[in-house]
Amino acid sequence: MTRLNLAGQRFRVGFNVVSVPFLRMDGWNETNHSYENFDGIDSWIIRILADYYNFTFELSDCHGQYGMQIENGTWTGIIGRLVRNELDIGIGGVLLSPERSITVGFLKPHWITHYTYATTRTTHETDLFTFLRPFQTNVWYCLLVSLLIIWIIDQISNHFINNCGLIVITLFLLIQQPYHKQQHLNITKKLWLIIMAISSLILVNLYSGNLSSMLTIPEIMEINSIDKLANACQSGQIIPLVLQNSNGLKVLQQNHHHSNEQLIAIRNTFEIVKNYDEGFNMITNAFVNEQKPLALLGVRERLLFGQLKYGYYLPPENDETFFFSSYFAMVTSVSFEYRKQFDMM
């Protein structure tokens, strides 16, 4: 099959630069009317296509507006400009949706990600009962029962022999204190002293090691699943933030009668933000000012790059931390005649 040769044909390419890692542009050169730094996933794809099919392109800034359908049925942003044939191609992390695919043409998705969330990083609060945490509750119960049994045996034995108590010996060894009356002990209690000395050495070392680890690296309770996020929203511990005109907002609004408890808890408590930057700033300010934690819902890649800058908490990527999958693709006008050839790359 003969390769398509567009012989230097010039296309109008609209872009949005708010969508790292899909596009990063800076250093506008007024003389050449071009950007010195043109990088990102979508920039690589458009340049590969340009080299392969021998075409050129001029860039047109859409100022971060991807497009929404307003009441009269028209579209705004990069989608609207494609509909009006002001552009031929749109790049910069354009999200594929059923509504958009009816109006414009999409190439095959080149990036699949998940719609997830990021939260304010939690601070560690001092727990007055931290000294009990090195051992589980069952271990403490067993230790108390053991001391009670030792005390009962000690009381019974003291009816026959008036001597130093086993319970006293045990307590001295547990708190790592020397017992100086060993010469007055009978064979039974000396044997008990040896056994308890070894046992207490193991027990105390385990306890002190675990306690030191907990104090050195405090445990931070993060919201690492959607179930925990929904519970935190329902109890008023955290406020979810959703981008206006986003797929996440549409899912919450369209599933108004959905029986999913997770969506219900988030839908009843969410607030709307204009863009990712506003959400990032709100999360950061909530942490700095020790306000109620916030959770920003969004595409994982955009939240991931924001995490590198703002340092908020992003949960691990698994089935318990994403709401639905998102697909990104380059978009074209309906009249663009080379979409099939571009899809073959």
UniProtKB/TrEMBL annotation:
Molecular function (Gene Ontology), one example: ligand-gated monoatomic ion channel activity
Keyword tags: Cell membrane, Glycoprotein, Ion channel, Ion transport, Ligand-gated ion channel, Membrane, Receptor, Transmembrane, Transmembrane helix, Transport
InterPro entries reported in the protein's UniProt record: Glu/Gly-bd, Insect_Ionotropic_Sensory_Rcpt
Annotated Ionotropic glutamate receptor L-glutamate and glycine-binding domain residues: 21-84
Sequence intervals crossing the membrane: 138-154, 160-179, 191-208
Chief location of this protein within or outside the cell: membrane
Membrane topology: Multi-pass membrane protein
Keyword Cell membrane appears in the UniProt entry: yes
Compartments where located: Cell membrane
SUPFAM superfamilies the UniProt entry points to: Periplasmic binding protein-like II (SSF53850)
One GO CC annotation: plasma membrane
Record-given protein name: Ionotropic glutamate receptor L-glutamate and glycine-binding domain-containing protein
Native source organism of the sequence: Dermatophagoides farinae
